[in-house]
Design a protein that fits this description.
The protein contains nine helices and ten strands. The protein is of the alpha/beta class. Helix 4 links the parallel strand 3 (66-68) and strand 4 (90-95). The relative contact order is 0.14.
Length: 261
């Protein structure tokens, strides 16, 4: 197990991870295995170099390595147990600001496992499907609470892993019910949100269940702004979740939802 302090610093290891670790089993026709776990943490915290979320770069350069993006430390522990029980490489991106939040300690901490490629429905809804992961889950939950007060029902799905991505078709099943979808994360525009959209809409055929244009909600097209409030202005906030989904409902049901401004 290798530890890289922050996700931003994964850049220093990408060449070795991409050329050597990710391709080892493929290059040797399964003759060699590399059960290596890279432990790191990222997403929201503070500052230009401690709040990175370059997930698009990672999932495109590290095909052949499991990419796990847990929403909290309990789910992260489950991923460690899953990878330790196998013989394949994986990167676990712990939510950095999760270290500041207390969680209930599972009684089977060293035993339970978080499955790979299985999204989890955290909140059931009927109007819009919101797909995200990592630290954005808490942001999404706050925005969904504001929307609920206006009668908008949002189904929140935690992707949990980006590689592999939704092997169970959970998101498409949700689309069959809501007919609208928003993909959200902290990467730059065209990053991991675009990957998730392509997987669901094109690869899994989710387009046939849509009544509205699919939407991506990402960070701004730059590194997080400097300062303690930099993440708030650079990355999606609860207000952005509210505005994005409310505007989607304004288009879908104009007689019921009027533009706020």
């Amino acid at each position: 197990m290798a530890e890289i302090q922050y996700l931003d610093y994964l850049l220093y290891a990408v060449q070795t991870l991409s050329d050597d670790l990710a391709s080892l089993t493929y290059r040797t026709a399964g003759g060699q295995r590399a059960p290596m776990i890279i432990s790191t943490r990222g997403h929201r915290l503070e500052g230009v170099w401690h709040s990175g979320s370059p997930m698009g770069m990672i999932i495109n350069s590290l095909r052949g390595i499991h990419i796990c993006v847990p929403r909290n430390m309990t789910q992260a522990a489950g991923f460690y147990n899953t990878l330790l029980a196998g013989d394949e490489p994986g990167v676990i991106v712990e939510p950095l600001n999760g270290y500041r939040i207390k969680e209930l300690l599972p009684s089977n901490l060293s035993e339970f496992r978080t499955p790979l490629g299985e999204p989890e429905v955290l909140i059931e809804g009927t109007d819009v499907t919101l797909v995200t992961y990592g630290s954005c889950i808490r942001i999404a939950q706050e925005g969904i609470g504001q929307l609920k007060a206006l009668g908008i029902s949002v189904e929140l799905i935690d992707a949990q892993t980006l590689l592999p991505f939704d092997l169970t078709g959970t998101i498409v099943k949700s689309l069959q019910k809501t007919n609208r979808v928003v993909f959200m994360d902290e990467d730059v525009p065209g990053g991991a949100t675009a990957f998730m959209l392509q997987q669901v809409i094109e690869v899994q055929g989710g387009y046939q269940y849509l009544d509205s244009t699919p939407v991506t909600l990402s960070a701004k097209a730059h590194r997080p702004s400097f300062g303690s409030d930099g993440d708030y202005f650079s990355k999606p906030a609860a207000e952005d979740v509210f505005d994005t989904i409310y505007n989607l409902m304004c288009e879908a049901k104009p007689a019921q939802y009027k533009p706020l401004y």
